[in-house]
């Protein structure tokens, strides 16, 4: 019944444009109009039908795709709906007001917890909106190796969006925490290139996840959180 509902044609067209871009190297999404792509279309169209006030956002597609890799279509839809309604409420509103607030909070956490990194970004006019919007809205599904994404999602379902804050801080800590790293990445272009293509040596689950978990024991971070 949900799939039979009418969805505005502009949203349907946008979904069709985006579905082939999601995990194109993964078996279930590799074939044009294959089973995976059809399932992704159905999940996203059904969401538009259930939540017409939100409609479709490009950040929906990678999250829904991640769910489809691990569960059947109907379960993926209800899980995706729960993520949007409970874990990421108001994230996908057209004004992105909650995302903007989260990014300001993230920058305040960075300034408090890693002031040397915050200062380095400020000197080179690198704002969190330039790189972290995608991290938060897509739950880092497009930025990390799949094994690491799975670990992040496990923690996300248990703790919510605060895990993305911790992961973002951990990434910046590993990327720019050392003085030598900041001396190497000493321009807006070099910093942004590194943030857009995160080095593999800092994104493996063996390296990144322990750093993410280290913030759990930090009283300062817990208070700010």
From TrEMBL:
One of the Pfam families matching this protein, by short name: RabGAP-TBC
SUPFAM superfamilies to which the protein is assigned, alphabetical? Ypt/Rab-GAP domain of gyp1p
Question: Where does the sequence pass through the membrane?
Answer: none
Write down the InterPro entries for this protein, in alphabetical order. Rab-GAP-TBC_dom, Rab-GAP_TBC_sf, Rab_GAP_TBC_domain
**What residues does the Rab-GAP TBC domain cover?**
1-160
Annotated SMART domains:
TBC
Q: Which GO terms describe its molecular function?
A: GTPase activator activity; small GTPase binding
Entry protein name: Putative tbc1 domain family member
């Amino acid at each position: 019944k949900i799939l039979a509902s009418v969805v505005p044609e502009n949203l349907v067209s946008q979904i069709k444009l985006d579905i082939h871009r999601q995990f194109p190297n993964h078996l279930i999404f590799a074939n044009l109009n294959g089973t995976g792509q059809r399932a992704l279309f159905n999940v996203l169209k059904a969401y538009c039908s259930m939540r017409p006030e939100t409609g479709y956002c490009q950040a929906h597609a990678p999250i829904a795709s991640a769910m489809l890799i691990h569960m059947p279509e109907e379960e993926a839809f209800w899980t995706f709906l729960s993520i949007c309604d409970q874990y990421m409420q108001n994230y996908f509103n057209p004004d992105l007001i909650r995302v903007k607030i989260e990014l300001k909070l993230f920058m305040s956490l960075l300034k408090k917890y890693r002031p040397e990194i915050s200062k380095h970004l400020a000197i080179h006019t690198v704002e969190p909106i330039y790189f972290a919007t995608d991290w938060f809205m897509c739950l880092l599904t497009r930025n990390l190796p799949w094994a690491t994404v799975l670990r992040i999602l496990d923690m996300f379902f248990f703790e919510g969006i605060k895990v993305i804050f911790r992961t973002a801080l951990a990434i910046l800590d590993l990327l720019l925490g050392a003085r030598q790293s900041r001396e190497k990445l000493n321009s807006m272009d070099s910093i942004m290139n590194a943030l857009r293509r995160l080095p593999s040596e800092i994104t493996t689950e063996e390296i990144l996840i322990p750093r993410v978990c280290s913030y759990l024991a930090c009283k300062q971070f817990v208070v700010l959180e």
